[in-house]
TrEMBL record:
<keyword id="KW-0443">Lipid metabolism</keyword>
<keyword id="KW-0677">Repeat</keyword>
<dbReference type="InterPro" id="IPR001451">
    <property type="entry name" value="Hexapep"/>
</dbReference>
<dbReference type="GO" id="GO:0016020">
    <property type="term" value="C:membrane"/>
</dbReference>
<keyword id="KW-0444">Lipid biosynthesis</keyword>
<dbReference type="Pfam" id="PF04613">
    <property type="entry name" value="LpxD"/>
</dbReference>
<comment type="similarity">
    <text>Belongs to the transferase hexapeptide repeat family. LpxD subfamily.</text>
</comment>
<protein>
    <recommendedName>
        <fullName>UDP-3-O-acylglucosamine N-acyltransferase</fullName>
        <ecNumber>2.3.1.191</ecNumber>
    </recommendedName>
</protein>
<comment type="pathway">
    <text>Bacterial outer membrane biogenesis; LPS lipid A biosynthesis.</text>
</comment>
<keyword id="KW-0808">Transferase</keyword>
<dbReference type="InterPro" id="IPR007691">
    <property type="entry name" value="LpxD"/>
</dbReference>
<dbReference type="Pfam" id="PF00132">
    <property type="entry name" value="Hexapep"/>
</dbReference>
<dbReference type="GO" id="GO:0016410">
    <property type="term" value="F:N-acyltransferase activity"/>
</dbReference>
<comment type="function">
    <text>Catalyzes the N-acylation of UDP-3-O-acylglucosamine using 3-hydroxyacyl-ACP as the acyl donor. Is involved in the biosynthesis of lipid A, a phosphorylated glycolipid that anchors the lipopolysaccharide to the outer membrane of the cell.</text>
</comment>
<dbReference type="GO" id="GO:0009245">
    <property type="term" value="P:lipid A biosynthetic process"/>
</dbReference>
<comment type="subunit">
    <text>Homotrimer.</text>
</comment>
<dbReference type="GO" id="GO:0103118">
    <property type="term" value="F:UDP-3-O-[(3R)-3-hydroxyacyl]-glucosamine N-acyltransferase activity"/>
</dbReference>
């Protein structure tokens, strides 16, 4: 798909300096620009590259004044970085604007979907599935019975959404995500053998939730596992049964959250964090990567370590952790001297 400089300037409310009819069909970094590519200049330290780039079009701030001759056509905008991001969003919308049901696929006679619907090949829509407008479901996706999906949802290839799940408007679910699998519910008998506890709840994703590739969100034992609006999950995260995550909380890769834990709003949780079950984490909490959380956490706390400590206390303690061998040697020397003096 090709775009002219005039078309791009129209989208961005920008001004063209150079050839208005020059076309681009791909994106590039400014230092790696090639003919037919579009790039941008927002960071002043990359300014030198604009004079050597082979990119056909470069988005720049309105106050940019070239000091040498340029071969690239400029599109001047108020904020080059924001405009480039806007263009990426527009490009993704155009690229994903597929419609229709590809074959082979299975769509239950009781499934319903709205306008602008796309279903990729080898996908499955179960009984009583209800899907809104402008939903795009890519190949090899499974949607179980009684699932409800809102408007403008993207579900990428290979995702699995189990029965009874509810997906809100504007959610994005990346490849390999599994939503609604059974929670880890087993009970031991007197012999130490395990019997399965039925998992009869569901998963609810409110609007504007992003779920990363390979992430798993378990259904509740009773009730719902809930991700409130605006939650952002990275790849390969495990959310256990009956967990609730508050609005606009963001969680990085490989974090695991055990069952029935409640996490507040606007929290930031780093990668490889482990959180035990049945605790409450307050609003605007920050947890550094590889921390282990085994207690309730108050609003606004910043934690690091395993078990996690207050962030400031952790940093002070770490100074001593590094010096432990020296401290042990010093103590040993003091003990030896004290013993000699005593003898």
């Amino acid at each position: 798909m090709k775009f002219t400089a005039t078309q791009i300037a129209g989208i961005l409310e920008g001004e063209v300096e150079g050839n208005p009819q020059i076309t681009v069909h791909k994106l590039s970094k400014i230092e790696e620009g090639e003919t037919g590519s579009l790039t941008f200049l927002a960071n002043p330290k990359y300014t030198s590259y604009i004079y050597s780039t082979k990119a056909s079009i470069t988005i720049v701030n309105r106050d940019f004044a070239p000091e040498q001759e340029l071969t690239t056509t400029l599109i001047k905008v108020d904020d080059a970085y924001k405009s480039f991001s806007k263009l990426l969003e527009y490009y993704n919308q155009v690229k994903s604007n597929k419609v229709g049901v590809e074959q082979p696929s299975f769509v239950s006679e009781t499934a319903k979907y709205g306008e602008g619907f796309y279903l990729g090949a080898f996908s499955y829509l179960g009984d009583n599935v209800n899907i809104g407008d402008n939903v795009k479901i890519y190949p090899n996706v499974y949607i179980g019975e009684n699932v409800t999906i809102g408007d403008n949802v993207l579900i990428f290839a290979g995702s699995k959404i189990y029965s009874e799940s509810v997906i809100g408007n504007n959610c994005v679910i990346h490849s390999g995500a599994i939503i609604g699998a059974d929670g880890f519910g087993f009970t031991p008998n007197e012999k130490g053998e395990y019997s399965k506890v039925p998992q009869t709840g569901n998963v609810i994703l409110e609007e504007n939730v992003d779920v990363g590739a390979g992430t798993t969100i378990d259904r509740a034992t009773l009730g719902s596992t809930i991700l409130r609006k605006g939650v952002k999950l990275d790849n390969q995260i495990q959310i256990a049964h009956n967990v609730e995550i508050g609005e606009h909380t963001a969680i990085a890769a490989q974090t695991g959250i055990a069952g029935s834990t409640k996490i507040g709003k606007y929290c930031l949780i780093g990668g490889q964090v482990g959180i035990v079950g049945h605790i409450t984490i307050g609003d605007r909490v920050r947890i550094q990567a590889q921390s282990g959380i085994g207690r309730n956490v108050k609003d606004g706390e910043v934690l690091q370590g395993s078990p996690a400590l207050n962030y400031g206390d952790y940093n002070k303690s770490y100074v001593h952790f590094k010096n432990l061998p020296k401290l042990v040697n010093t103590i040993n020397e003091i003990e030896k001297k004290a013993k000699v003096d005593h003898d």
